[in-house]
Specification:
Family: Belongs to the short-chain dehydrogenases/reductases (SDR) family.
Strand content: 5-15%
Pfam families: adh_short_C2
Structural class: alpha/beta
Number of strands: 7
GO molecular function: oxidoreductase activity, acting on CH-OH group of donors
Radius of gyration: 18 Å
Shape: globular
InterPro entries: NAD(P)-bd_dom_sf, Sc_DH/Rdtase_CS, SDR_fam
CATH architecture: 3-Layer(aba) Sandwich
Protein name: SDR family oxidoreductase
CATH superfamily: NAD(P)-binding Rossmann-like Domain
Length: 299
């Protein structure tokens, strides 16, 4: 259910009222959703599923919280079972599994490090063992470490950002592809920063640019196999990544730069992933859909 805190009541007003968050910071990435104030809104009770993904199985990386949790819930509402992959956020992952189960679908939580190529093969194997098939692959894992200067981006940070944000796209796709059939879909989470840039996120935004190119090129490679490949480019979204990467002072104004003068909530993105995973988007591949509160981008 949607929490009844004032942030949501402000969001539902017709006029665009600036919405701010209490200052907060977590010292470890990817961050923990249950510690956030307010907790992100993952489920919209007004969203009614209509069987768009009935009988489907999806793997969702980063599915424990934030955008991944919202997508897991929306997929469950549409009739899909999900395997969610997470690094260490077990309490968040178990909460997501309970939310999926509440809508009558199964959720398989899988803990591990997607920076290891062998783990992707394990994820696919465990999903196939549990569910028997894979229909959709949602590649949603990510980290970011803001730096005011490129000179402050260490070799370790650069490698970690790339190994987390883009390398698993290759590892997971290579592991899952032999088991995907015509009609299957691959959906990545890109970012508005791939198009608008971000002065504090040079390495992060460049990985998101790589995801855009990955999406376009892979879509061309797989179109003859009947597999569609697309991406979603969120703007500022209230997720654990924000409070674990930015200072408490920065968090107070997060999202105010959008024309809507607020950050988005994860549930506002989820229907875009449903669209790209379902037959509603049967003539869509190689595309990036922008959900960013009105920020204009060059596509």
């Amino acid at each position: 259910m949607i929490p009844t805190y004032p942030y949501y009541s402000q969001m539902t007003q017709c006029k665009q009222v600036p919405i701010t968050f209490p200052p907060q910071h977590q010292n470890r990435q990817p961050g923990l959703e249950y510690l956030m104030n307010p907790v992100p809104i993952s489920d919209n009770p007004e969203y009614r599923g209509s069987g768009k993904l009935a009988g489907k199985v999806a793997i969702i990386t980063g599915g424990d919280s934030g955008i991944g949790r919202a997508v897991s819930i929306a997929f469950a509402k549409e009739g899909a079972d999900v395997a969610i992959v997470y690094l260490y956020e077990r309490e968040d992952a178990m909460a997501t599994a309970e939310m999926v189960a509440a809508y009558g679908r199964q959720c398989l939580p899988i803990e591990g490090d997607l920076r290891r190529p062998a783990f992707s093969a394990e994820v696919v194997h465990r999903t196939l063992t549990h569910f028997g098939k894979i229909d959709t692959l949602v590649l949603n894992q990510g980290v970011q470490f803001p730096q005011t200067s490129i000179l402050d981006i260490s070799d370790e940070q650069l490698e970690n950002t790339y190994r987390t944000n883009i390398f698993p796209h290759f590892y997971m796709t290579k592991a899952a592809l032999p088991h995907l059939c015509p009609g299957s879909t691959i959906i990545s989470t890109a970012s508005v920063t791939a198009y608008a840039g971000a002065p504090l996120l040079v390495d992060y935004s460049s990985t998101k640019g790589a995801i855009v190119s990955f999406t376009r090129s892979l879509s061309l490679q797989l179109v003859d196999k009947g597999i569609r490949v697309n991406a979603v480019a969120p703007g500022p979204i209230w997720t654990p990544l924000i409070v674990s990467s930015y200072s408490a002072e920065y968090v107070k104004t997060f999202g105010l730069e959008t024309p809507m003068k607020r950050a988005g909530q994860p549930f506002e993105l989820a229907p875009t992933y449903v669209y790209l995973a379902s037959d509603d988007s049967s003539f869509v591949t190689g595309q990036v859909l922008h959900v960013n509160g009105g920020i204009m981008t060059e596509t």
